[in-house]
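Q: Start with the shorter request: fold the first protein.
A: Done. Sequence, then structure:
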Amino acid sequence: MVGNALWPKPEKQNYHQKETSRKPRVREDKISIVIAARNNAPFLNDAIESAFNQSIPCEVIYSDDCSFDDSLTIANRYRDQGLIVIESPYHCGVCATRNRGASRAKGNYLLFLDGDDIIPSDYVKKHLEAMTPATPFVYGGAEAFGSFSTLWEAPDWTDGKLWLRNFVNTSALWNRLAFETAGRWRNKINTMWDWDLALRGARLGTPAHSKAILKYRQHTDSWSANIQTKYEKRQEVLLPQMRQICSRISVGSIISGRLAEFFPQWMSAVAQSVKLINSQEPVELVLLDNSNNPETLSLMRSETNRYLDTFESIRIIPHPDSFTFSNERERRNQVAQFMAYACNRLHVEMKGDIQWLIEDDILVPLEAGVNLITQLTAGWIPPNAVSGCYRNRHVETQFVGGHFDDYHTVNAYSEMGTETSIVDYCGTGCLMFWKERTPRYWDSHYQEIPAHDWEWCSRLKQAEGKILMLPSVHCGHVISAENILY
C-alpha cells in the first residue's frame, strides 16, 4: 500500500439497494501520457506531437526538470491544445519529475515518455487492447533510431525471466492503482529505473505483452549512446546491485520440536544473519510448527517476538502432520513424504522473490545471509540456487551435497576446500533460491530413493539450472544442544 492506493481496487457496493435496481457501472478508460524531460529542446516537438497524435485521445502532461534550454518555450506553445505544463525551480532527477507528472494526471492508466522518444499513433491503442483489470502493466519492444538503429523485441512474459535482465522500457502502460501500489518511480542506483519499477509492479499480477513498438532515439547526449560501455562495463556491476535492492526475502523453516531447547540459539543466529543482509525490501519469517507441543509453541512465540525489528512479518503456522512406521524403510519413506509436503507448504506460504530454507537443526554463521545472497544475485545469469555446507549427521565424514554420476548414484563430498563449487544436489538445511527460477513443487523420492532434496535438485539440473555450494557458509549440524557437528 502507498498512501490510500490498493491493488486490486475493491468494488464499492451499496447493500441497501435491491438486487433488481442495480445497474452495471461502466467506467470510461482515460489515458494520461506523462512526458518527463530535461534539456531535450531539439527533440521535444516530436515527443509532444506523437503524444497528441494517438488514435485514442489522451491527456498529455509535460513535466520539466529545470531545463535551461528552450524546452519550456516549446512546451508552452502546446498549451492551447491542452498540454499541461509543470515547471520545476530546481533539478530533482528523472524519477521525481515523472512522479510529479503522475500526481497531476487524471487518467486511470498512465504512460511515461521521455522527451527525446516518439510513440507511433497506434501505440496506446495496442497497449490498451492487451490490458485487463488484473494487469498491472503492459509492455512492448523498442526500435532505436538516430545515431544507430536496431530493434529490441520484448519477449512474452512467461519467457522473459525479468530477474535476469530488464526488457520493460519506460513507456509501458500502467494501471494507475498498480503504479501507486508498487511505489511509483524511485531512484536507488541512478539508473535502471524501468527495471526497478517493473520488478515491483510484477508482484501485483501478470504483466501483458503487446505489439506496440517505442521509437527510442539515440543521440550523443543520451546516456545509452555508448551502448558497448553501458552493457559490458556498467551492467556487469549494476545488475547484481539492482537484484539485491529489489528482491524480497522469505526465510522458512519446519520446527519439529526435537531440539526445542536449541531454538533460542537457532533463532538468534538466523536473525543476526538476516539483519546483516541489510535488505532494502521487507523480510518475512515463516515457521511451520510441527512440534504438537504447547510449551514449544509458547517458546517459539516468545523468542520470535525478540526480532520484530528484523522481520516485517513473523508467522507461526500449525503443521501437526505425524506418521507411524514399523521399520527403517517405512520411516525413511514417511520422512521424505513429510519433508516434501512441508517444503511445498512453505513454498506457497512464503511470498518472497528469494526463499531461504533453514532447517531447525542447522546453525548458520553470521555471514551466511550476505554471502548467499551475494552469490545468488551475481553475474549476467545468476545461479538458480545457492547452499551453505554442513556435514551429514548420520554419516559424519560426508557433507550434504555433491554430484550424480551417469548411473544416478549420489557421490557426496568428503571435503569442501575453499572455492565455491557447482553441485548437482544439496540439502535443504541452508538453501537459498529464486522462487520463479526453480522447480515449483517438491516430490519425495529420487529414483525410488526417499530424498526430497535430491529429487528437487535433479529436476533443476534437468532444466539446466545451476546450484552453487559455498564453503564460506560453513554451518553447524546440531546433534544436541551440547553437540554441534562441524
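Q: Next, the second protein, separately.
A: Sequence, then structure:
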Amino acid sequence: MGKAATAKKSVGDDINTDDPQKILKKVPDKNNAPSIVDASDDDVIHDDAPGEIQYKGPGPLRGESTLLLETRRGQMIFEGRKERKDKNKLAIIGLRSFASYLRTIWDAAGKNDPYADWWLLKVQRILEEKELWMEEKIKEYEAMLQQFPNMTHEVAHSISPVKRTLRFSIPYSFRGAMLLMQHDQLCKTIMTAHHVGLINTKEEHASLGQSGKAVRTAFQAVAGYRFTGVTRDCIHAMNPVAQKASEIMGPCPSGILDDVVVPDFESTRSMMTRKLRQQKAAAFTDSKKGEHNLF
C-alpha cells in the first residue's frame, strides 16, 4: 500500500497575510520560526531563487533620555537612601527604586493581576496631583522674583549640573523623572528667592521640605503593592491566592476588576489581555440572551 502523497508545506503557509502591509519572511530564522514584519514594496529584496523573499528594513528603535539635576536635593531623591537602623533612618525610595518597583507592577498587570492595575492607577493619580502642585509653586515663586518692574532676578543655575541617563521602559517611570525635574526647578527658585531677600530662612527651609516631601510621597505609592500571583479568575473564584492578596492589599475595587477604569499607560500584553476578557464577557452575555429567548 503506497504512502499518501503530501504537498510540501513551505515555511509560513499557515500565516494569514491578507494585510497588504504585512510581508512574510520566507527565509527561516535560527529557530526555524516564520515571522510577519511590516514592510513596503521598496523594503523587499527578491533573490534569484524562486519564492525566496527577504525583508530589508530598519532595526529596533534605540534612543537616550537624560535628566539634568542642578541641586543636591534633587540628586539625593534621584539616588534614594537605604534604611540605616543604626542611625534610625528609614529608607527613601528614590527615582531608581521607584522605576524598579514599577517594573514588577507593570509585568504583573500584563498577567491579569487586578491589583497591579489598581496600583498603576494610584501611581498615575498621585503623580498628576504632585505635578500640578509643583507647577503652581514654581509659578508662585517665579512671579515673586519678577514682582518689581525695575528689578528682575534670574533663577540661579548650577555651574556643574549632574547628568543622569534614564534607562526606563515604562512611561510612569519617566513621569516620575518629570516630577523630580520639577522639584529640582522649584528648589532653585526657592533658594534664589531666599538669596535675594524675598523670603526668610525659615520659609526657605519649610518650602524646600514641602517640595521634597511631595516627590517622596509620590514615589512611596509603589511600596504598598505585593506580587502574589493573583488574577481576576482567582478573585472571581475566591480561592486561597485571592484571599491572601486581599489580606495584604485589601479588597480590589469592582471598577478595576470589571475594567471600568484602566490606567492611561499599559503594556501591549495588558491591553490584549483586557480585550480577551471583554470578548469573553460579551460572549457570555450573548449566550445568556440566547438561553432567555428559548423560553
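Q: Describe the second briefly.
A: The chain has a mean pLDDT of 82. Residues 66-224 form one domain.
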